[in-house]
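Model it.
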Amino acid sequence: MVVEHTVPPRSTLEQQAGYSIQKQDKSRFWEVRDAAGELVCLTAYRKGAREVVRRLAL
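Modeled.
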């Protein structure tokens, strides 16, 4: 049995939540920033940054 989940595109989720994900210059880390531009966290992987935004948006 295949279960399909409907998840909005990543950029839509980020925009709705008011967070942005940016790659640091000359680094492997990804920044999660809030609408005011304040750093929320750093992650090693973009997938991890997306998960942080998803959880904060709940």
